Amino acid sequence: MSQTNPSPSTGNLGQVVPALRRKRLGMLDALLLLAAVATYFFADLYLALATSVLIMIIFALSLDLVQGYCGIETLGHAAFFGSGAYAAGLFALHVSPNPLLGLVAGAVVAGVVGLITGVVVLRVSGLTQIMLTLACATLLYEAGNIAKSITMGDDGLTGYTIAPVLGMFEFDIYGHTAYLYALAVLLVVYLFTQFLVSSPFGLTVQGIRENAMRMSLLGVRVGLRRLMLYTIAAAVAGVAGALSAQVNNIVALDTLSFTLSANVLVMLALGGTGRLYGAVLGAVVFMVLSDRIAAIDPTNWLAALGVLLIVVVRFAPDGLIGVVDRMAARVRRQAPAVASTDNGNPHHGHNTKATTTDKEVTP
Known about the structure:
By secondary structure, this protein is mainly alpha-helical. Helix content is 76%, strand content 0%. Helix 3 runs parallel beside helix 8 (176-198) and helix 4 runs antiparallel to helix 5.
């Protein structure tokens, strides 16, 4: 069979390396990591909020894989978050309190849910696809509400304990262990998603997003690739749900609600789709502003977020990460001109600036 030929394998490896170079960790990654470390040391009173932000970043990354990189529209992404949360809670209650095994359980169960629902959801497109994702999440929500003997219904799944991480780090009431644990999981997930979208598989999926018919004519199994990514994204969302269940010691029925699906969509719209940075920035902005605005005005805080979303969509349709990109590009264009002017040759600086601008607009 052609798959046994070693030459495609070598070709794939040759594609992975330059892809990873294009997506290498840069200055923004360092700044985000520095902000996370500074939060631990200088925002001790807000570690619970910061932990929730980290969990939502993982959740937003999973949605970005589906919607931003593959072009699959969904209104029911909370189905995977809730599935992972309930799986981790039930695993800790009946099998083992080991947190790492609980994460694996949440990812596996959510991935299975994504695989099963994806077979149905991905057969259609457009509005029908959106409605099917919402229907799947609603069915899971009602199942969780009815099966009170298992999920405890509206009361929430409680009564389980989580063992110390790696057998050494116990969860404390101040949230130090929970924050570091969530940060470590986020780093692993972020590196995995960076590798995934930069790999030949990820590049193929992005090609499917742009033109599925052309990719099909090139011999790509479009349906299988989309189902694979949908399943992987569901597993990542399950990790976020499992993490939430472990650090909060409760799994509420709201983890399967439409509200959660809508919130993560807003996060992605704020940050920008098709960019992992967009998922990170969107989750941070949404969670922090929601907390601060709700503290100022508990009644009308949603209206303020709505106004912010309208402003972003109107003036930055590619999200906050698009604004950051344009500012960075402007700085890069101005830097050669300033350097050349300092050397006493302003005309040379003008030419350098024009050349740099031409490079910026090249795909």
